[in-house]
C-alpha cells in the first residue's frame, strides 16, 4: 500500500482460447449447465467464441493479438469465483495477493512493485479502479465474483490504443451476461466446503432473467459466500481467524425499442469482509511457518499469525453504467458512461514493525516493556467517472474503422493513522500528548499521534482511432493511434505529536501537480492460411502515467518531487489453428516487451521520521517468452486442454540506489534480476469427461493440475543486505478434482481443490515487519473439499 509518512517506515482452462475450443454448446460444462434455453447467438457465428477486444464483436480467429478467454460455464465448472481462482486458468497471468480485494495482477511479468497498476481491469466497456498510484491502484484490482459472468477476456501486451493508460502488461475484461428479451430463466446454487486445518464455509447465489414486454428485460443476480479460515491468531488466541465473507449482486436492464437502438443500464455492488489477515508469520529464510509463539515462547503448530489488536481487511465495490448503441446506418454510435467507487479499509497491528515505539511513548511510566502497541488503520477511497463516445463502421469485407473520445475524472483519498493500544487487552489508548514545542518552549497539545491524508485528482482526455484494411480474403492489416493528455493534483496533510518528536513541525501540508501528453499506437497484420488457421503479428506501445510524488516534511533535495510515465513497446507473433472437425486446436504466441523508464519504489531516510517510501523511475527492463494452449477432443464428451507459459522477465539496468540507513545508496535490484512475481514457467492441464446415464441423466468427472515455478518477490534491499540474497518463493503444484450428475433441472457437484495440500505462496512481505524476526507469507488455500447443488429453469 502506498505509504505517506513514516507510517510507512520501515491455459489450460483458457478453454476457449481458440475457436476449436470454442464449441461451447458441446463442451461438458456447457451442456450440463442448466436446462435454460440457449442464449441467442449473432447471425453467422455458429456458436464460436466472440470477443470484443477491438471494441466490436469479432470471431477470436479474426483478432490479431494474443487473447485468453475463459467462459462463464468453465468458471462454474472449476468453482472459480475470485482472482485467486482465475489466475490459474490463464497462461502468463500471476497474482500477488495479501487479502481478498488486495490484489496485484501481473501479465507477462510486467511488474516492479510500487503502487501504480500495469494491468487494466474493465467490467464490460467500463474501466474500474484507479489510474495512478496516488490511490493504491496497483494493489486494489477489482476482485469481482464470477456469478453470471459470460466470459473473462484477458488481452496480453499493451492495450494503449483502445484502452489507454495502465495497460502496459495487458487488460482483464469481465463481460457480464446481458438481459435476454423474450426469455424467462433462472438458476439457484447452494454449496458447502471444508478447508484442512480450518473451519466450514458455505455459499448461496441466484440469477433471474425476466422480460417486461417485448422491448424490455431485466436480469438480476445475487450471492453470499462465507469462506472458512485456517490461520490461527496468537496474542488474541483466535482459531481459524482469517475467514472471509463476500456478498453482493448485479442488476441490468435492457431497453430495445427498435432493431437500431438499445440502452443497457447496469448496477453492481460487492462487499468483501476479511477477518484478520490472510498471511502467516514465516521464517525469513525458509518461509516455513514459525514454530514458536513470539509473545510467550510456547510452541505452535500450523499457520499462525501474531497480533494483539484485532485486524481486518474490508473492501467495497460499486459500479454504475449506461451503454447506448444507435445504428445510424453508415456507422453505430456508442456512448458508454460509468461511475464507480472503491473503498478499502484495512487495519493491522504494527507494533513490532515500529520497534517498541508504542512502549517508548505510551508505555506504563513512559518505559514499560510490552505495555503499549501501535495499530494502523489504512483507508483508501476511489471515485471514478468515465465517458466514452465511439463511432464504428458496419462490418465490411474491405475496410472497417472506429473513432472515439474518452474522458475520466478520478478522485482519491488515502487516510492513515498511528494509534496506540494497551497490552494486554487491546484497549485503545488516548493518543493525546502535550509537548513543549511551542514558541519559547510553550506547551502544545496534539490530539493525534500521527495522521496522514493524501487527496488526489486525476483527469484524462483522449482521442483514438482504429482501422482494419482487408486486402482480399486472406490478409488483414489493423492499426490504431491514441493521443492522451492527463493532469494530476495532490494535497498531502500530516499532523500529530510524532512529527515534533522527530524534529519536524505539525501540521505539515504539501501539494503537487503534473501534466503529460502521450501518444500510443499499434500495427497488427493477420494472414489466414486457411479457413481453420491464421497467423498474426503485432507491434504496440503502451504507457502508465507518472505524477507528483508524496514528499515527507524535511525531505532533502535529492528526494524526487515527481516521477515520469513509463512506456513499453511489445513485439508479438502468433498462430491459431484447428482441425476441420474441431477435435484439435492450438493457440500459440511469442513476445518481446521492451520497457523503459520503469516506475519503482524509492526509499530515503528522512531526519526524525526514518525510512520513507515514494515513487521514482528506473531505467529499463524486458520480458520475453512464449505461450501455448492446445485443446484435444478425441471423442464426444471428452475434452483435454493444456497450456504452458515461459516468461523471462528481468531488469536490464540496476535500479536507482536508495537510502536504507547504511550510509550509502543501495540499489534494491540489479541488472539481470528477475522481475517480482514473474515465474519463468507455469502450466495447466485439464481433462473433463461427460456421458449419458439411463433415464437421460448426465454424469461428469474432471480434474486439473497446475504447476508454477519459483518466483522472485518484491525488491527488498534490507533482506538482501542481511541474508546476502534475493528473497524468492519456491515453485509449487496443485491438483483439483470434480465429479457430479446432472438430472434436469438439478445438478450436483463434488469437488476438491489443492488435493495434495500444497503450501504455495502468493505474497511475501518486507523483511523485519513481523514479531520475533518473522516475515509475512500469504499462502494459497490448503486442501478444500466441497459440494454444490444447482437448480435451473
Automatic annotation (TrEMBL):
Main localisation: membrane
Keywords on record: Cell outer membrane, Ion transport, Iron, Iron transport, Membrane, Receptor, Signal, TonB box, Transmembrane, Transmembrane beta strand, Transport
Domain TonB-dependent receptor-like beta-barrel positions: 278-755
Alphabetized PROSITE patterns for the sequence: TONB_DEPENDENT_REC_3
Topology in membrane: Multi-pass membrane protein
GO biological process: one example: iron ion transport
Name of the molecule in the record: Outer membrane receptor protein involved in Fe transport
Domain TonB-dependent receptor plug: 60-170
GO CC, alphabetical: cell outer membrane
Subcellular locations according to the entry: Cell outer membrane
Leader peptide range in chain numbering: 1-22
Amino acid at each position: 500500500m502506498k505509504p505517506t509518512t513514516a507510517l510507512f517506515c520501515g491455459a489450460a482452462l483458457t478453454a476457449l482460447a481458440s475457436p476449436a475450443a470454442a464449441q461451447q454448446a458441446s463442451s461438458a460444462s456447457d451442456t450440463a449447465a442448466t436446462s435454460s434455453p440457449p442464449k441467442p447467438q449473432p447471425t453467422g457465428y455458429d456458436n464460436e467464441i466472440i470477443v470484443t477486444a477491438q471494441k466490436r464483436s469479432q470471431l477470436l480467429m479474426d483478432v490479431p493479438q494474443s487473447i485468453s478467454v475463459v467462459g462463464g460455464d468453465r468458471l462454474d465448472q472449476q468453482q472459480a469465483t475470485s482472482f485467486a481462482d482465475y489466475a490459474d486458468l490463464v497462461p502468463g497471468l500471476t497474482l500477488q495477493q495479501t487479502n481478498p480485494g488486495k490484489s496485484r495482477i501481473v501479465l507477462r511479468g510486467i511488474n516492479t512493485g510500487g503502487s501504480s497498476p500495469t494491468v487494466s481491469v474493465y467490467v464490460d466497456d467500463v474501466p474500474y479502479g484507479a489510474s495512478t498510484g496516488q490511490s493504491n491502484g496497483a494493489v486494489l484490482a477489482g476482485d469481482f465474483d464470477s456469478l453470471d459472468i459470460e466470459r473473462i477476456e484477458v488481452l496480453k501486451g499493451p492495450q494503449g490504443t483502445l484502452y489507454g493508460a495502465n495497460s502496459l502488461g495487458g487488460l482483464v475484461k469481465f463481460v457480464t451476461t446481458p438481459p435476454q428479451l423474450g426469455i424467462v430463466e433462472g438458476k439457484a446454487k447452494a454449496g458447502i466446503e471444508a478447508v484442512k486445518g480450518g473451519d466450514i464455509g458455505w455459499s448461496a447465489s441466484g440469477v433471474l432473467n425476466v422480460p417486461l414486454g417485448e422491448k424490455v428485460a431485466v436480469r438480476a443476480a445475487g450471492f453470499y459466500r462465507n469462506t472458512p479460515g485456517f490461520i490461527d491468531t496468537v496474542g488474541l488466541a483466535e482459531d481459524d481467524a482469517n475467514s472471509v465473507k463476500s456478498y453482493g449482486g448485479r442488476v441490468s436492464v435492457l431497453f430495445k425499442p427498435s432493431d437500431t437502438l438499445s440502452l443497457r443500464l447496469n448496477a453492481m455492488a460487492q462487499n468483501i469482509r476479511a477477518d484478520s489477515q490472510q498471511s502467516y508469520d514465516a521464517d525469513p529464510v525458509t518461509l516455513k511457518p514459525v514454530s514458536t509463539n513470539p509473545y510467550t515462547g510456547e510452541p505452535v503448530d500450523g499457520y499462525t499469525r501474531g497480533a494483539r489488536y484485532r485486524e481486518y481487511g474490508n473492501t467495497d465495490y460499486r459500479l454504475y453504467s449506461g451503454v447506448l448503441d444507435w445504428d445510424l446506418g453508415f456507422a453505430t454510435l456508442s456512448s458508454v458512461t460509468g461511475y464507480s467507487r472503491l473503498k478499502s479499509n484495512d487495519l493491522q497491528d504494527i507494533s513490532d514493525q515500529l520497534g517498541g515505539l508504542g512502549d517508548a511513548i505510551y508505555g506504563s511510566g513512559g518505559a514499560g516493556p510490552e505495555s503499549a502497541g501501535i495499530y494502523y488503520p489504512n483507508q483508501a477511497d476511489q471515485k471514478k467517472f468515465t465517458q466514452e463516445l465511439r463511432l464504428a463502421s458496419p462490418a465490411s469485407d474491405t475496410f472497417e474503422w472506429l473513432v472515439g473520445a474518452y474522458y475520466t475524472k478520478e478522485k482519491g483519498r488515502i487516510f492513515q493513522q498511528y494509534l496506540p493500544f494497551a497490552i494486554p487487552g487491546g484497549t485503545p489508548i488516548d493518543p493525546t500528548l502535550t509537548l513543549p514545542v511551542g514558541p519559547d518552549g510553550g506547551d502544545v497539545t496534539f490530539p493525534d499521534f500521527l495522521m496522514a491524508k493524501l487527496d488526489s485528482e486525476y483527469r484524462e482526455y483522449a482521442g483514438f482511432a482504429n482501422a482494419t484494411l482487408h486486402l482480399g480474403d486472406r490478409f488483414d492489416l489493423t492499426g490504431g493511434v491514441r493521443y492522451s493528455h492527463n493532469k494530476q493534483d495532490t494535497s498531502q496533510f500530516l499532523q500529530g505529536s510524532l512529527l515534533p518528536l522527530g524534529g519536524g513541525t505539525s501540521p505539515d501540508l504539501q501539494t503537487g501537480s503534473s501534466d503529460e501528453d502521450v501518444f500510443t499506437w499499434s500495427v497488427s497484420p493477420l494472414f489466414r492460411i486457411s479457413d481453420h488457421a491464421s497467423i498474426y503479428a503485432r507491434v504496440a506501445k503502451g504507457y502508465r502515467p507518472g505524477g507528483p510524488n508524496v514528499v515527507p516534511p524535511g525531505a532533502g533535495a535529492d528526494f524526487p518531487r515527481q516521477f515520469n510515465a513509463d512506456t513499453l513497446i511489445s513485439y508479438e507473433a502468433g498462430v491459431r489453428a484447428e482441425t476441420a472437425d474441431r477435435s484439435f486446436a492450438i493457440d500459440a504466441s511469442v513476445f518481446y516487451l521492451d520497457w523503459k523508464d520503469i516506475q519503482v519504489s524509492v526509499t530515503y531516510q528522512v531526519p526524525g521520521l526514518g525510512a520513507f517510501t515514494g515513487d521514482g523511475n528506473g531505467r529499463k527492463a524486458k520480458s520475453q517468452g512464449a505461450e501455448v494452449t492446445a485443446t484435444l477432443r478425441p471423442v464426444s464428451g471428452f475434452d483435454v486442454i493444456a497450456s504452458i507459459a515461459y516468461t523471462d522477465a528481468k531488469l536490464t539496468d540496476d535500479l536507482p540506489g536508495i537510502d536504507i540507513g547504511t550510509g550509502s545508496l543501495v540499489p534494491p535490484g540489479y541488472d539481470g534480476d528477475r522481475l517480482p512475481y514473474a515465474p519463468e514457467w507455469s502450466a495447466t492441464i485439464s481433462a473433463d469427461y461427460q456421458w449419458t446415464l439411463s433415464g437421460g441423466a448426465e454424469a461428469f468427472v474432471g480434474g486439473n493440475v497446475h504447476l508454477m515455478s519459483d518466483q522472485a518477490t518484491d525488491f527488498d534491499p534490507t533482506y538482501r543486505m542481511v541474508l546476502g540474497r534475493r528473497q524468492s518463493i519456491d515453485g509449487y503444484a496443485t491438483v483439483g478434482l470434480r465429479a457430479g450428475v446432472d438430472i434436469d433441472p438439478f445438478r450436483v457437484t463434488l469437488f476438491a481443490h489443492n488435493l495434495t495440500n500444497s503450501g504455495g505462496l502468493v505474497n511475501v512481505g518486507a523483511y523485519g515487519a513481523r514479531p520475533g524476526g518473522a516475515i509475512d507469507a500469504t499462502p494459497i488455500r490448503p486442501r478444500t473439499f466441497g459440494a454444490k447443488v444447482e437448480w435451473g429453469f
